[in-house]
Design a protein that fits this description.
43% of the residues lie in helices and 12% in strands. The chain is of the alpha+beta class. A hairpin with a 7-residue loop joins strand 1 and strand 2 (36-42). The radius of gyration is 21 Å and the shape is globular. The model has no long low-confidence stretch (mean pLDDT 96). The chain binds adenosine-5'-diphosphate, 2-acetamido-2-deoxy-1-O-phosphono-alpha-D-glucopyranose and magnesium ion.
Length: 371
């Protein structure tokens, strides 16, 4: 059986599971910044290979891993019921856990890290960039996800990362990292520091609206990147929302906003050439249309009014998080080269500036669609 070098813990993890046929091996999979993901392949003597996704949760990002798995099980069980009631395919439209040999929904390894095994959703693709049609399809899927969970008892969910989208708190953590300036990097990123500082007041907009009771707390995904929805190869529709680790109480504008942050442009999140990084308002329009369609009119007038804020705040917040991690010595997000977090921060700030320049139009588009 093939196991990647230096990842011998996988032998221990894999031995906790029964596989239907001979397991050929495990390969690293996907492009997530947080967890360690592997694709496992079983080959029957005849017929197609059977694949699984094995994930080791990041201990740094998710300190309360058992609570996270409670959320995962609760949310996917609820989704299964709703999908079944709607006549859907429960094995494709949500994630399905494969239990360990002793019937547990996850395996805790000898270092205390939690691993989970899920069925691979075959016949799907996971995209980093999409055509406008596919982007709108992803929006329908994320809007639908929120709609499907609208009757989930939000108070029973754990906060898997405290203050995850509390932009005020993200700003405070940035100030702490800046103060410490562990690696002496602050002097080289004065422009980025100023960009964040100039937007301190913005960081309170969603939190104020929540505190004032303008925006309702809902069950949200909170990490709605395009690559967290699997697209059906045949129908070209978003079939399964994945990466449920941050599904917890949140604001609808976070889910709308994070998709816009990642998908309403034509460049990579770490593009070095900022002339290539441009907010595409047409893609924003397509996403808004799809999201509202998927959410089936479930958003309040205030939520609609704050959608552009969701886009700007998720982008600003993510830029601040990348900058914070850069100042802190790159401990949180996986990096593949030294300045990657700084490059990521710069693309986010460029997109924020673009949104600011098209602010009124962003509002107008939502108003038009919601009419
Ligand atoms: P991360 O938190 O690291 O982003 P994800 O849960 O998003 O982890 O998984 C990483 C990648 O693995 C995804 O982008 C997708 O390509 C793939 N993937 C995850 N779960 C499945 C699944 N059940 N079926 C098919 N592909 C999957
Ligand atoms: C992380 O795990 P992944 O790659 O889907 C991060 C998100 C960021 C994103 C930036 C738990 O998402 O919050 O927006 O990177 N997830 C966590 O690409 O911190
Ligand atoms: Mg992911």
């Amino acid at each position: 059986m093939y196991i990647p070098e230096n990842e011998k813990i996988l032998t221990e993890v894999i031995s906790a599971y029964d596989f239907p046929k001979t397991l050929l091996g495990a390969v690293r999979y996907g492009s997530g910044h947080i967890n360690d993901t592997y694709c496992l392949v079983c080959q029957p003597q005849e017929g197609k290979a059977i694949r699984f996704i094995l994930q080791g949760l990041s201990v740094a990002a998710f300190p309360r891993q058992e609570e996270l798995m409670e959320n995962f099980i609760g949310v996917t069980s609820h989704l299964r019921k709703k999908i079944e009631a709607a006549g859907g395919d429960v094995m494709r439209e949500t994630l399905n856990i494969v239990p360990t040999r002793d019937g547990k929904p996850y395996y805790m390894d000898s270092t205390g890290r939690v691993w989970r095994l899920t069925h691979y959703v075959e016949g799907t693709v996971c995209l980093q960039k999409a055509t406008p049609d596919l982007f709108e399809a992803s929006a329908r899927a994320f809007g639908r996800f929120q709609w499907l969970l609208a009757d989930y008892p939000a108070e029973t969910l754990h906060e898997t990362i405290i203050n995850f989208h509390n932009t005020e708190d993200r700003f405070a953590k940035f100030l702490t990292a800046l103060e410490a300036d562990k690696l002496g990097r602050a002097k080289d990123v004065a422009a980025e520091i100023k960009f964040a500082m100039d937007r301190k007041a913005d960081c309170s907009v969603a939190m104020n609206a929540l505190r004032e009771g303008k925006l309702p707390l809902r069950v949200t995904h909170n990490d709605t990147k395009l690559n967290n929805v699997l697209i059906d190869e045949e129908s070209q529709e978003g079939v399964c929302i994945i990466d449920l680790d941050t599904t917890m109480p949140g604001l609808s504008i976070y889910d709308f906003g994070d998709s816009i942050r990642f998908g309403a442009n034509h460049s990579a999140e770490d593009e070095k050439d900022l002339s290539k990084v441009n907010f595409d308002i047409e893609l924003y329009k397509r996403y808004a249309r799809g999201f509202l369609e998927g959410a089936k009119g479930g958003l309040t007038p205030a939520e609609l009014e704050y959608l552009p804020w969701g886009a700007k705040l998720m982008t600003l917040e993510c830029g601040i998080r990348f900058l914070t991690d850069y100042l802190d010595g790159d401990n949180y997000f996986h990096i593949h080269y030294p300045e990657q977090n700084l490059d990521r921060c710069r693309t986010q700030f460029k997109l924020v500036a673009d949104m600011e320049a098209q602010w009124d139009e962003m509002h107008e588009i939502v108003r038009e669609i919601a009419k």
